[in-house]
Design goal:
Elements lengths: L14 E5 L7 E5 L2 H10 L6 H19 L5 H15 L1
Antiparallel strand pairs: 1-2
């Protein structure tokens, strides 16, 4: 997907932070703020525990499914996650 620059939209040049799929956190982040650049750099050094990753995964799943269907509960997401974890072992 190509990005189209918008004239006058940015007050400073963008800094592009790219993480490879082999990293635990991957993707591309573009910023134009020194404080955000520093935070992105610091987050690369964070190693999350398996419990933290599980909670983050569940929170992401809940947030995205609940937008489409407000009958989805956190417990439903947790149960689905437990089933997927059990099947993968």
């Amino acid at each position: 997907m190509a990005l189209t620059p918008v004239r006058g939209a940015l007050k400073a040049p963008l800094t592009v932070h790219t993480l490879s799929p082999g990293d635990s956190k991957w993707g591309t982040v573009m910023t134009n703020n020194d404080k955000i650049d520093e935070l992105v750099t610091r987050t690369r050094k964070i190693t999350m525990s398996s419990g933290q990753l599980r909670e983050q995964r569940r929170s992401f799943a809940f947030g995205n499914t609940n937008i489409e269907n407000d009958r989805i509960t956190r417990e439903m997401v947790a149960e689905a996650d437990r089933k997927i974890e059990a099947e993968s072992k």
